[in-house]
Amino acid sequence: MQYWVPKALTLGVVLGLSGCSVFTNDTHQKKNYRVHESVQVPADLEQPYQDKEFQMNVAVYENDAEPQSFRPPQQVLTLAKGSWAEDKEDVARIYFDKNDGIEALDDFIWAAVEGVINNHQSSIENDDRRNGKLTTGWYSIIEAEDGWFWETVTEVSKQRFEFTLSQEDHQRTASLEVKLVDYQSDKVALDGMLRQQLEVRALNEVVAEFDYRYRLLEVELRKQQGVLSLDLGYDNAGNAALITLADRSTVMERLSNFLERVNFTIIRIDGESNEVLVRYKKPESSVWDSIWGEEASTLNLADGDYTISVGVTDDEQTSLTWSDAEGNVLDAKTMETLQQGLVTALRNRGLSI
């Protein structure tokens, strides 16, 4: 009944052999043997016997590998609206589509390039924009590390770049390519990887500047729309009202969205009587809002419910007459204050009806 004994022995042998198989030939690499210096015996004493058969020479091996750069290639960042890049391109290039509000796409891109140059307090070395090329002066993409205030800050390297702008015949798409034309550094040698990183980083700076400038342009466009959308006037009954050039149907469609963004709550929209019932409550501003510059716009208006009557004036403009919860029409002074507050909100937030 001891039939399990041979099987157990066989299994043990197999496991032992499989365990030995995990050791590779590198185990017996000569670098893995460590030989220590023999005991130093004073010269005036008898030296110990050393069998030459077991004598090993002391060797020193360099274990530190050559320093290598393991940083991945820099990636083109399509941060700006309407920007895009081709996959697997071996050059630093980005494409821009002509967004709304941009009159000349090439001029807008060149302005972004100039903005980057000015940010680096550099200059234009060669201006050949007629042929789509611009070469910069010297500036440093890699910022120097901060040291103590008495230490002299030195640049790691400085570079000069050539920007090439190509535009399609329809002038609604343009590409911008960056090429490193000169490099100086006493510490870091230029190789293929570093060249690619510098070129793409220079391009990404222009993309960020393009995005910043277009955001400002969008705000200005919205501000202009907002300033022109509300005026102070009177309705056909002679009551003080807000006047807009948009037709009544358009105002009824967009008014609720506009008011909600300036802290009103829409309670009811009555399309038959052309009235909008709203509720206003002043927003609470926190310390964090003031730190980040996002303080909510407040109106000089008492909290409560209001009815907005949307009518048409004799000159075909649209009037917005406001009444409080008791049905009393707001007087001219209150409407003037309300109009100024709404226009300020339009300017600050780039809103329009």
TrEMBL record:
It comes from the Bacteria. It holds the Pfam family Lipoprotein_18. InterPro entries: BamC_C (IPR042268), NlpB/DapX (IPR010653). Gene3D superfamilies: 3.30.530.50, Outer membrane protein assembly factor BamC (3.30.310.170). Signal peptide: none annotated. This is Outer membrane protein assembly factor BamC.
